[in-house]
């Protein structure tokens, strides 16, 4: 059966890795009738860390909204609240759909819905705590800026060399060919909006003067920690895509957004992140805790991977490798089956398999593939620490980031930089954008 015709604002491509047979689906959304030249490009990467399922959910709904299919969204209370906020701030006059429609005349969205596809499949198969690729590499530590190899078994292993992983290479190629004005790397584990540096303390010196306006505007929805990652997050990340996009590709607005944290972790009202407070305190207890983190203890709170060791309830949920291995063995022999989440939670957590309309049943698959006893509890904790489990919270998170991404696109539309980037490209300083693929290619 032929694939259904995509909406006219949407094009699909499968971008190959030049070195292997891997490829990544990329979605381009704009008003193609008004052309692509001179438009601002916003590159969104979701699903980089396997267990952060909610990031792909957000871009799935964004795709629906941008292509005018907002029937379901319009009924959500959270969407109505987000819309009212946009009116109040003078960003929109009508619905989010109308706002989006207007923006597509000036902005191109390039979306990678799931960067870590194999990892995502493993999570759907029950490996709910998996952050890295199935090859064991953290894709957000594999970039050639301030790269360090790290420990192979650690959750932040940078790979044998920079760009050793096809996924990172493909994202780099997309960025090089599309020259985005904004790059947004979506993660979860806390609420935050970060700009460079990741790999050192301080705000990167060449960020545009209006970067604080962008952060403040995004905060209208997030109401969370925001600023230079190395300062605000309380940990450093080496070989990250955000630092690379800023330093090597001169992306004007390089952002990492942390879209969800359990119990409002990272929200301003919750006092930001305990990790940050510990570090700021600088006392011996804090030093001890952070020192323990450096020893490679795993924490599931935040996106820090192995860096942070947190007090109290946040310190739980260590990934149990041997139990995972055992469970995988059980899966292979088809004998596993303990429920991880309640049925209500499973129903509430609606997981979609990418943007091509297939509806997945990931949490059910995960539950069916589950493990026993403490391991099941730990796995369930991973699901909960990175993903909203109740319908109301899920809708709130999605609405928050749909509106935030429109705010960012709106800012780009009002402060165009694409024209100067195009001029640079003509002078041969930068690679030119590729020609759009043919309809046959898109349908493939
Ligand atoms: Zn992450």
UniProtKB/TrEMBL annotation:
Needed cofactors: Zn(2+)
Spans annotated as Disordered: 419-444
Record-level GO cellular component terms: extracellular space
Pfam families: Peptidase_M14
Gene Ontology MF terms in the entry: metallocarboxypeptidase activity; zinc ion binding
SMART domains: Zn_pept (SM00631)
Limits of the Peptidase M14 domain: 1-296
Gene Ontology biological process: proteolysis
Active-site residue numbers: 258 (proton donor/acceptor)
Top-level division of the source organism's lineage: Eukaryota
Family listed: Belongs to the peptidase M14 family.
PANTHER family linked to this entry: OS02G0119300 PROTEIN, PROTEASE FAMILY M14 CARBOXYPEPTIDASE A,B
Protein name (record): Zn-dependent exopeptidase
